Amino acid sequence: MTKPDVKPDEHKGWRHWFHRNPALNLAYRIGVGVLGGLVLIAGIIMIPYPGPGWLVVFAGLAILATEFEWAGRVLKFVKRYYDRWVEWLKRQPGWVRALVMAGVCLIVLATVYLLNVFALVGGWFGVEWSWLQSPIFGSR
């Protein structure tokens, strides 16, 4: 006979061990929240760059959605608007898509400059031009 406050499907799989002990359940939920939050933050940071930024955002939200109902709603909302953006971009003329790509390239170049990558690579080849130095990390 099952307890009335326990859902029948909670007795399946390894997750039921955590549900049986409130302290373990809380620790598990905190762990899922921290892991999912870190993955989500990493994905948000990666969005403007070429690569899997949105995929990582969706993964972070999916991790959070395993324990938090609000994250499942946010995941559906974000996916819907992402799909709309992609469909809108596909319908645009080539110059609009090129403008979006140019914006992405500018973000990447600005980040590379601010992280002092141009000066680092220039130093490998003996190029020590002052304008390659980042205003943030460029002081030697």
Automatic annotation (TrEMBL):
Q: For this UniProt entry, which segments traverse the membrane?
A: 26-47, 53-75, 96-125
One matching Pfam family is: PGPGW
Q: What is this protein called?
A: Membrane protein
Listed A to Z, the keywords are: Membrane, Transmembrane, Transmembrane helix
Q: Which domain of life is it from?
A: Bacteria
